TrEMBL record:
UniProt main location, coarse: membrane
Transmembrane segments: 33-52, 73-93, 99-122, 142-159, 165-185, 197-222, 242-261, 282-300, 330-348, 355-376, 382-408, 420-443, 449-468
Membrane topology listed for this record: Multi-pass membrane protein
Localisation per UniProt entry: Membrane
GO CC annotation, single: membrane
Swiss-Prot/TrEMBL keywords: Membrane, Transmembrane, Transmembrane helix, Transport
Protein name: Permease
Length: 481
């Protein structure tokens, strides 16, 4: 429990630094609201973690894995990536070069996501049942949300006093704290040298891997920005219709591939492939039900994701200072989130999953509606606390229930890859739409935007009776037992 609280803290600390805090930083430097919305697409990277998740199941990090094991080896590498990317964001904190800011934000998102993939795979291997998942997920999310609150509120308070560079450097230093604790932990296995040799080898390998990842990201980013410029996409572009059309593509592709997947035999290349096998297995087991499941997981957290990137710029625009927002995001948000996560973790151990999912969605919607209420109140810090507490309580409860539900859909044969796929797809459509959030606010205003985000949280209710009847197909072949 304590270990997973620590791992949650390690993953949650940098999240606000490439999402909410970055949005406020860009707003402070006069970046257009539509462009701030585009930066929400940095958060798309975690939705594609299924692309590299199989690598974490298959390969070891030299040095680190030899002494501390596969999962902790990847966690240690990811922490070094988080620290280096956060420090780089501090160096570019004036946002004079937005492509450079985007590069470092993408790297921070990548290594944060890699840490989550490794920790999630380990959790599912250790705790495969619903009763066992509830407490460990609660511990993980307590650490995660505590870190998010610490980063969000602490960074804003520091930025108000010492500037954005100081805020990011302090968060980078805090992100490094778990690394020596992991180094000091007992080994998983020790082959070919002691702790010092393994650490030295791992650090050299980490420098090489981090450098190659930064170079590859820079090349891809240069190509993407070039294509966007040629397509005429700028701060005045209305990208919402194009994003909505793009959101339909994954469902069309999955529906087209499903008949062939269902006919696949145990020895077919589709099911034995290292790269595709774990994902084909999900559709093979659930059949048409997989399409319903994917539609549901795409909607369940959509309201929260839409609200995340623009809630703080909206509050800042109402007249609240960074210090006031930081205080609201500190103790108030932390306590509300802890209570929400705790109740969510308790519900899944006592209630039917459908009931727990419905209650989580209801409170998530109320949290989004709270921003509409706040916008029509006089500027008052206690009222800001109420809206923040409602948002964090609903997010915490819905998040805890959702993590357990997704974990139960996973085949234990492919824990890392399938959980990465499910969580990635769960946030793919919401984060695509979040990138168009700035243009949506321009069209319907903040009130309409947050009413829409709350309504989307409630839109999952009709799915729940259908989900209760979906059962996975039994495995065939020699591994059926």
């Amino acid at each position: 429990m304590a270990l997973y609280g620590l791992l949650g803290f390690s993953a949650g600390l940098p999240f606000y630094m490439f999402s909410t805090v970055l949005a406020l930083r860009l707003q402070a430097h006069g970046v257009a609201l539509a462009v701030i919305g585009f930066f929400a697409w940095v958060q798309l990277l975690p939705t594609f973690k299924f692309v590299w998740a199989p690598l974490l199941d298959r390969y070891d990090i030299p040095g680190f894995a030899r002494f501390w094991g596969k999962r902790r080896g990847w966690i240690m590498l990811a922490q070094l990536g988080i620290v280096s990317a956060t420090a780089a964001m501090a160096w570019s904190a004036n946002d004079a070069n937005l492509p450079l800011t985007a590069l470092f934000a993408v790297l921070l998102a990548f290594w944060t996501t890699t840490l989550e993939v490794a920790a999630d795979a380990w959790r599912i291997e250790l705790y495969p049942t619903q009763d066992a998942q509830g407490p460990i997920v609660a511990a993980n999310l307590w650490g995660y949300r505590s870190a998010m609150v610490a980063a969000g509120s602490g960074a804003l308070l520091l930025a108000d006093v010492g500037g954005w560079s100081v805020a990011y450097l302090v968060i980078a230093a805090a992100a490094f704290l778990p690394f020596p604790l992991l180094v000091a932990m007992a080994p998983d296995r020790a082959h070919g040298g002691g702790r010092g040799v393994a650490l030295g080898t791992g650090l050299v390998a980490a420098v090489v891997i981090l450098s190659l990842a930064a170079l590859a990201t820079a090349v891809v980013g240069w190509l993407v920005l070039g294509l966007a410029a040629r397509a005429g996409i700028d701060a005045d572009s209305n990208v919402t219709p194009w994003v909505l059309g793009l959101c339909m593509v994954p469902f069309l592709l999955m529906a087209a591939a499903l008949p062939r997947i269902r006919r696949a035999t145990p020895g077919s290349r589709l099911r034995t492939s290292v790269a595709l096998g774990p994902y084909v297995d999900f559709f093979w087991r659930y059949g048409v039900g997989a399409l319903v499941l994917m539609a549901f997981v795409s909607l369940y957290r959509m309201g929260d994701v839409l609200a995340l990137n623009l809630s703080k710029p909206m509050i800042k625009g109402l007249g609240y200072s960074l210090t006031q927002i930081g205080r609201a995001d500190s103790v108030v948000a932390l306590l509300a989130s802890i209570v929400g996560v705790g109740l969510g973790g308790w519900m899944v151990t006592r209630w039917r999953m459908g009931v727990a999912l419905a209650v989580g969605a209801l409170f998530a919607a109320l949290g989004n509606f709270g921003f509409v209420w706040l916008a029509h109140q006089p500027v008052s810090e206690p009222l800001l606390y109420v809206a923040t507490a409602a948002d964090q309580f609903g997010n915490g409860m819905a998040g805890a229930v959702f993590v357990v539900y997704l974990s139960l859909l996973v085949n234990p044969r492919y824990p890392g890859a399938q959980y990465a796929f499910l969580t990635g797809f769960a946030f793919l459509l919401p984060r695509l739409l979040a990138g168009a959030g700035g243009t949506m606010v321009g069209a319907i205003g903040y009130d309409g935007f947050f009413l829409l985000s709350g309504a989307l949280s409630l839109a999952v209710m009709p799915f729940l009776p259908v989900l209760a009847r979906i059962r996975p197909r039994a495995d065939d072949g020699e591994d059926a037992a």
